[in-house]
Amino acid sequence: xxxxxxxxxxxEVRGDFKSGRTRSLDWRLAQLKSIVDLIKKHxxxxxxxxxxxxxxxxYECFAxxxxxxxxxxxxxxxxxxxxxxxxxxxxxxxxxxxxxxMKPEPFGVVLIISAWNFPFLLSLDPMxxxxxxxxxxxxxxxxxxxxxxxxxxxxxxxxxxxSAIRVxxxxxxxxxxxxxxxxxxxxxxxxxxxxxxxxxxxxxxxxPVTLExxxxxxxxVDSSSDLKVATRRIAVGKWGNNNGQACVSPDYVxxxxxxSTKFIEAMKDTLKSFYGExxxxxxxxxxxxxxxxxxxxxxxxDDPNIASKIAHGGEKDETKLYIAPTLLEDVPLDSKVMSExxxxxxLPIISVRxxxxxxxxVNSRPKPLALYLFTKKDKVKxxxxxxxxxxxxxxxxxxxxxxxxxxxxxxxxxxxMGSYHGKFSFDAFSHHKAxxxxxxxxxxxxxxxxxxxxxxxxxxxxxxxxxxxxILCLLGLKG
Length: 479
Description:
Elements: H1 3-18, H2 25-54, H3 58-84, E1 87-89, E2 99-106, E3 109-113, H4 121-132, E4 136-140, H5 146-159, E5 165-167, H6 172-179, E6 185-189, H7 192-203, E7 209-212, E8 218-221, H8 227-238, E9 252-256, H9 260-275, H10 291-301, E10 310-312, E11 316-317, E12 322-323, E13 326-329, E14 346-352, H11 355-363, E15 370-374, H12 378-387, E16 392-395, E17 409-410, E18 416-417, E19 419-420, H13 423-428, E20 430-437, H14 453-463, H15 467-474
Parallel strand pairs: 3-4, 3-6, 4-5, 6-7, 8-9, 8-15, 9-14, 13-14, 15-16
Antiparallel strand pairs: 1-2, 2-20, 7-18, 10-13, 11-12, 17-19
Helix pairs in contact: 1-6, 2-3, 2-5, 3-4, 8-9, 14-15
Organism: Selaginella moellendorffii
InterPro entries: Ald_DH/histidinol_DH, Ald_DH_C, Ald_DH_CS_GLU, Ald_DH_N, Aldehyde_DH_dom, Aldehyde_DH_NAD(P)
Keywords: NAD, Oxidoreductase
């Protein structure tokens, strides 16, 4: 799509927002209900498109793509009246008589740039929040998931308001052209590298951004853990979550040296129970998205420092974009596989002598999107929570915070800024306008010049909520 066409699309959407239609509660509810209707009628189409793009099993597609979007819509429909209502807050004594409130209002016209690894979820889920907040939306699906992108571009105009909600397909040129437009909010999901580009473009217009990025999400396993349960939960979080191609997937494991051998053996048993002796034949695991990512992952395994560290897996088939679930044992901390986000079916497992050493390793790296801890000890849990920083944390499981709509989901530092999900999605696309209202009937003359010592004392008492001082000033006994 040419830059001039993109500019025209953005202009049309902005004009529609200016009409005020998207602010209507009825309009918002109608769009959200239409998304639910779209999902109900086209669940099979969505599943097929995601399978074409990712080879994603139907169960995984429902659990991680379809259900979360449908659930987000239903939650917003149920609560939208309360979310959009003004919230009263207590005013300062110095402003009395007055009432104070906060009223959420839409930012305006927002741009949502989606990612390829969850091509339906990461397109529609942010849009639910944007629509619920009353914005007009331009969505850019990922060109790396072309089947899902095409499906979204075909279906959304059939179900949603095509004047206020538009889809722009394409690659880097289209994304570049979109970023050159004036937006009231940009929501981007993807890599830190592109996140920097998005933020730089947004800065030209002082446009607020939400950046959902990634990073190397660590797992810490201490000696008190139930290894059988822990390996199941880590494995499904890694290979059952887009075959490791997810921003919240476990990226590496730091396991207490006293149980590291047992942990690796338990993980091998778990992988065999999940995917059989030959995972290549399993119907329950996604494939690598494309040849570029396949070659990148193969490059990590072919590193001379890594080839001897393969404890399990390592098999690959370029024709099917297949890399077996692979365990690496005690890789060097300065190796390439430990320097970049893996985003694939490779899991380094590193022995540590103590929780303190594990914490030091985590803290020596950029802040991750997620941190996972497995322990039965409350003191260990409290220590890790207190001494590490991450976008989110799960104790004794992996990734489930992503589905918990009562929790904010987002990164910190290198792993992103801002959060969404549930009510937090509505807030991400809303400006909470502060409103203070006062009557004419009471006007305190002490706030106006010329200022006397008595006025200064009276105003000081008001600002400091010194009720006794206020009374004494009024009685002429102070100041």
